[in-house]
Amino acid sequence: MNKMTIRDLDVQGKKVLMRVDFNVPVKDGVVGDDTRITAALPSINYVLENGGSLILMSHCGRPKGEKNMAFTLKPAANRLAELVDAKVTLAPDVIGPEVKGLVDELKAGEILVLENVRFYKEEEGKGCTAEEQDAFAKELASFGDVYVSDAFGTAHRAHASMAVVTKHIDQCAAGFLLSKEIEYLGKVLEAPEKPFVAIIGGAKISGKIDVVTKLMDKCDAILIGGGMAYTFYKAQGKAIGGSLVEDDKVQLAGEILAQAEAKGVKLMLPVDNMAADAFSAEANTKVVGDSIEDGWMALDIGPRTIELYCAEVAGAKTVVWNGPMGCFEMAPFAAGTFSVCEAVAKSDSISIIGGGDSVAAVNKSGVADQMSHVSTGGGASLEFMEGKQLPGIVALTDK
Asked: Which terminus of the chain has a smaller tally of CB atoms within 10 A, N or C?
């Protein structure tokens, strides 16, 4: 990555404007999962320890450009205050004279958290002109001497606090979290250690087509699981019963299979499945082969497939995993996802986990700390692996 990183900045005596991702689950005013807040701590502490002060920006939820206090960053600011040895103040707004006054009073070693940037429509650029968005970004930029982005989860969005603010600050750098994401995902795209296995699951092919196509040029094997497997089944003329299917993607699934064969990539589909007679944890279940009769739906990969997929993972040197193998939220259909989870954790590979459901599964299985890298960005990590330029990264200053 030929971009400035936080280590390239002199933050001594400077006000550092930092975009973080504090879009965390909140219940009754309390943060339920502080993973995203703790993930930003290395960058936050680096600035504080090196004599700088911090103005933090983040979004939370979808207030749709209106000041809706149901989406306040107060719970996140409160949690941050418990995690750092510094004074943390929550601003009453995002911009304006009152906020500017708080910025001016900020001393080295102190943190000011701006309110939810999505309280302003200019953040996402919806329902406003480009000039209005630029003016909003310029006011944000006026708060900081330098800018740091540590919000990979929104790096694929050309939002004001990610990609427009950088036009108005001379030095814009990647924080430790963003740098780590780029380093790991970049390795996969540029020079993955072989054998390279991709595990692609989830409900639909539609969101994963580009990444499957892109990885085909790099991978030795692609293991398909989740609901998307049955669109491939249908393309092969197999019976799928009531299983999930994208009828408008059946032809495309056939083309992907043909492409894999032509390139000599092992594209593996489930050889057996855990089927149910209803979409419910209380449903009757049975193991079936690769043909699913009417009245039944496949909700997880079967035991033989688990064995085959785990064997493939065991020999890998690089593993990328995006999407669960089945409806792991329901206990009868969790074996596939958790077995693959454990196989990846045990493997002697560089393992990169991306996508909200995969990350949730890894956390739930208790093996997250055995993975090389658990990505904080679902859509962003997919787009990065597709080879797309992410606006929030492109906007940073070149070294």
From this structure: C
